[in-house]
What does this fold into?
Amino acid sequence: MIPSALKEIIDSSGTFVVTYAVSDTADNSTSVEISVFVSALADTTNPVITLTGSFTINLKVGDTFTDPGSTASDNVDGNITSSISISGSVDTSSAGTYNIV
It folds into this structure.
């Protein structure tokens, strides 16, 4: 069982001192301190990108390409859609296969 004093601090990183103290009926007392070192968990899970549209888009020469969009999330950082970077371009004046990363 985790003492309530420890439960309150395990959600924060840092160094914490917890003091255990006791007195008997003759007013004799003693105490002991422990240092608790709490560090952040390592973030080892990759973010997830979800495409709004299809993985494959078929256009005809002269059509307009519109990026269907995407979202990104991370188990630690939450919604990171604004951090998505996009590379590549589509030249709809020439037939071909274009990769957007």
